[in-house]
Design a protein that fits this description.
338 residues; Rossmann fold; 7-stranded parallel β-sheet; 13 helices
Length: 338
Amino acid sequence: MKKKILVTRTLSLFPDIEDRLSVWFDVEFSRGGKHAPDHFRDALRGKSGVLLGGGERIDEALLSSLGDSALKAVCIPAAGYNNVDIAALTRAGIIVTNAPGLVDETVADFAWGVLLATARRVKEAEDWLQEGEWKESAGSRFFGIDVYGKTLGIIGMGRIGQGIAKRGFGFNARILYNNRHRLPAETEQACRAEYATRDELLAGSDFVILCLPYTPESHHLIGPSEIKKMKKEAILINVARGGLIDEVALADAIREERLAGASLDVFEQEPTVYEGLLGLPNVLLTPHIAGATEASQHAMARLAADNLVAALGYGPDAGRPPSILNPELLEDPAGKGR
């Protein structure tokens, strides 16, 4: 008898991935959006694994509510995993995997796209045109900010941050970065990037881009005091995770013209967006699509499927999924739940 698995929000999956999973498993495909917590709990009952594509949260409370669960693997088709409590899953002997490194260049492209669009007020200008307001010259209505030769501050200098920095070469940008650990000199040279303290970066940058993971320590990394340190003409961009920015403080700063603009692809309570951000001038809001190209999403879905097959003991990597987040479980095959 095949093991049962759950695949959530298959709108982002592909027929070949679904076929691959069906070879190994008895699959329940969730064709809708994100599960409500009670529905998600019920859907998990009797499942050995879940491909978690809908952003549903798995934590200690959910695991406790499942009782004596068959769950052995949680596989996420994304690099981020702040919706799962890895410590709780590890204690329960449940393997957790993600899909890192497959959208780095895609997100770096997107970051530059929204940087340019926000700096040049493209959305406002297009809305004005679409609404039939273009009766005469726009004049100074949509005066924006030059990008060439400006200073770009990157907070979080992993693969995505480095990709963004390298794209800055063509704009003759000065690159400042802040990271938990300073990069090796050869990496700094390859990115033409200068290390700066966070305060130095905020004060010196024309554009600030967030590329770091969300953790309890990085919650509201950008709040009222940080915004106060930024240039009045600066633009803030978040292509990382919601919760890094105090959205109330940001909305207030834009409204009071203490910051020139912002572009957010992620939100603290997504898909709910703080209403104070809506309708603000020169604020570009997108629905978590920085990594949304067909090629990159297919690659992540494929890796998540490979992880799930391996985690449940099948395929060429049986027992050793390619991108496991709690490898200590592999070192203790007699661990709880294995």
